[in-house]
UniProtKB/TrEMBL annotation:
Residues 46-100 form the Integrase zinc-binding domain. InterPro entries: Integrase_H2C2, Retrovirus_Pol_polyprotein. It comes from the Eukaryota. PANTHER family: PROTEIN CBG26694 (PTHR37984), PROTEIN NYNRIN-LIKE (PTHR37984:SF5). This is Integrase zinc-binding domain-containing protein.
Length: 149
């Protein structure tokens, strides 16, 4: 992150202003993630080169949340126009959009079933589903091998 901040034009300008005591008080250089990073209102300023990766990671690992949930889950980060860019990214997902159009209200973390792949080899394709929380905060992981189910 630090390396990318030092190479990003917007970040470099903000860092230079901070070093010359000319910066907006919302900007600061603070320790985060083990290094000193540029922050805006105590949120890590994300250089342009990392924005797409961060949006992809949050969208995938949070199981395809809507734009508002994804934006709020990314509250440790900031960049100019972030909320609009996150919304555009989330709405660009064809699978999510289709699921919402055809299935009514889409539940957070759910995607429509994907078609089965043709294969002749065992364990080429494995399907997994996580069910829960169940009583007592338990979860159940179901794994099915496609060839011999």
């Amino acid at each position: 992150m630090k390396k990318h901040q030092l190479q990003d034009e917007t970040c470099k300008k903000s860092i230079a202003r901070l070093e010359n005591n000319e910066a907006d008080p919302d900007y600061s250089l603070r320790p985060a993630l083990g290094v000193v990073l540029l922050q805006y209102r105590k949120r890590i300023m994300v250089p342009e080169t990392l924005r797409q990766n961060i949006m992809e990671l949050y969208h995938d690992y949070l199981l395809h949340p809507g734009a508002e949930k994804q934006y709020h889950s990314m509250s440790a980060f900031w960049w100019p126009g972030m909320q609009v860019q996150v919304a555009k990214y989330v709405h660009s997902w064809v699978e999510c959009t289709k699921a919402k159009l055809h299935g009514g209200k889409q539940h957070y973390g759910h995607l429509p079933p994907t078609p089965a792949s043709n294969t002749d080899r065992p364990f080429d394709v494995v399907h997994a589903d996580l069910v829960g929380p169940l009583a007592g905060s338990f979860y159940c992981l179901t794994v099915i091998e496609q060839q011999f189910r």
